[in-house]
């Protein structure tokens, strides 16, 4: 391998799409190619086993990013309101894989990816902080960027830009301007 | 025959001598949290050279500083930290609110940001701009020096309010 720059070629690269299609026959919502990146849409129930398969069997051992999208006002209909997005990298071949796990609106829950990828720890806390998606089995699921006493999840669609009175209600504010 | 005053002696009060010394040795505590901090650094480095005004000793320790420079946006979660830093600074102390965000929230009229640090801290000099030029920073520094020379600071009202809390 050395330090040579690896450019993933979908025609000669590892047959990730075929392996995943074969393993998860009928359980994928959608599979697609975005440039050099392969994407898989799954339900929240299938996501942990797909991530484990990608990491343990297909060598996608690097979690590049973990984030979420609220599709509440998205023009095209989506399988569920929230999409939790995992971007994985295979260091051997340079292949990139996107996994999008759809989570339902009411009491959104998803199994944690921390046992698979230690780097998912803070990223899942951030998604919990801003979208209110609960990652079951997370070792320390609490707010990471917003103050501990914050009550809502501001990156959900419909949350007002100026907040719901947090600025006036924050404890430091109460002490000084009250 | 009257006693002649020697030319090499000046009489003054001890207080004004101390204030004069203070005004020419401001030790800033830089609280740079956003892009204004870049202009603050430029103002402190050799081209604009704040050490011409006696302010070259940047102390990232509030206990050894007497001038707090808040340059950047402050979030709800950061404000208690900033107030703690302010409380740790020994009096007399001064505060510069640098740029639109620190002074008024700027364009960030959002759920997470403080709309002006002067709701919590006594600000002695505001610098407009987004971000301000180093010249504006130097002018604010001179305003604070003028206040120090006159023995003034904006801490009085703040201290009274903090004691009520």
Task: Offer a few descriptive terms.
heterodimer; A: alpha/beta; disordered N terminus; B: about 160 residues; four-stranded parallel beta sheet; 6 helices; 4 strands; globular
Strand content of chain A: 15-25%
Helicity level of chain B:
25-40%
N/C terminus separation of chain B? 63 Å
Total strands of chain A = 7
Count of discrete alpha- or pi-helical segments spanning 4 or more residues of chain B = 6
* Mean pLDDT level of chain A: 85
How many DSSP E strands of chain B?
Answer: 4
The SSE order of chain A reads: HEEHEEEEHEHH
Strand count, sense and barrel status of the largest sheet of chain B are: 4 strands, parallel
Rough shape of chain B?
Answer: globular
Strand order of the largest sheet of chain A: 1-2-5-4-3
Shape designation of chain A: elongated
Describe what you observe in this structure.
The complex is a heterodimer of chains A (178) and B (165). Chain A is an alpha/beta fold and 178 residues long. Chain A is built from 5 helices and 7 strands; from the N terminus they run αββαββββαβαα. In chain A, the strands form 2 sheets. Chain A has a 5-stranded mixed beta sheet with strand order 1-2-5-4-3, covered by helices on one side. Chain A is elongated and about 60 Å long. The termini of chain A are far apart. Chain B has 165 residues and is of the alpha/beta class. Chain B has 6 helices and 4 strands; from the N terminus they run αβαβαβαβαα. Chain B has helices at residues 14-23, 36-44, 79-88, 99-104, 134-149, 155-164; strands at residues 28-32, 67-71, 94-98, 125-127. Chain B has a 4-stranded parallel beta sheet. Chain B is globular. In chain B, 35% of the residues are buried. The A-B interface holds A 145-147, 154, 159-164, 166-167, 170, 172-173, 175-177 and B 76-77, 79-80, 83, 109-115, 119-120, 161, 165.
